[in-house]
Amino acid sequence: MHHPPSRNDAQIAQWNGAAGHAWRDEHALLDRMFKPFEDLIAATPGVGPGSVVLDVGCGTGATVMALARRVGQAGRVLGIDVSAPMLDVARARAQPGDGQVHFVQADAQTYPFAPAGFDAVVSRFGVMFFSDPVRAFTNLRYAVRPAGALRCLAWRSAGDNPFMVEAERAAAHLLAGLAQARPDGPGQFAFAERRHVEDLLAASGWTRVAVQPVDAVCAFPETALPRYLTRLGPVGRLLADKDEAARQQIVAALRPAFDRYLHDGEVRFSAACWLIEARAPG
């Protein structure tokens, strides 16, 4: 397999900088928020005792540990991510007896996986950040055995996920330099269009491609909303450079925009995603 070099420097810098540190610090909040999707990844068809699984963009390791419980001591799970801060948390979560869990800091787009080394490749919101997605999914196809499974979750459009862009909309007049989410990626909404996902997987050599909408209710404590606003997403990254007084002022201005998501002491919202499944040629 010979490819020209492909670099993803901007995303690597972002996830080793403010974004990666924020996800490291707020991993418990994010794990709770995304628990419904962790369960979907753990339930990947064909993954069971003894399976060998690759988790792409594994972040702080929640999905790796869920998969490890599924494959048992006879199986193995490798988590790959570009983010050193997030992998610090992931490695700390692995218990001394979890010999089947391993992590590597690398870009799955270019990492030299052993050919046909995995029964399945999975990802919870980790595949939208490649600078060259066809190159990346081709590399992942070489890493999986013949007829091996691919199961990924990716966000649908910003329009389908108003909660995810609520802070940017509310803060647009308050924060200079706030970039709106781009639909052409790499980034959160890079896979917003179903046909685009189908086309890039076909171009990468995957077969039996199925891209189906999945909606789930996500929740976290209302008391965590200020942390969500000041640490996560584009608004959080810009607020990192503000002093505490400025942060509190902006959060107070943003807070009313989230009233419609508050229910019985929780922030609740509907998350609109694609469940992406495919098979390597068999």
From TrEMBL:
It holds the Pfam family Methyltransf_25. The keyword Signal does not apply. Gene3D superfamilies: Vaccinia Virus protein VP39. Keywords: Methyltransferase, Transferase. PANTHER family: TRANS-ACONITATE 2-METHYLTRANSFERASE, TRANS-ACONITATE 2-METHYLTRANSFERASE-RELATED. It comes from the Bacteria. One of its GO terms (biological process) is methylation. The keyword Amino-acid biosynthesis does not apply. GO terms for molecular function: methyltransferase activity. This is Class I SAM-dependent methyltransferase. Residues 53-148 form the Methyltransferase domain.
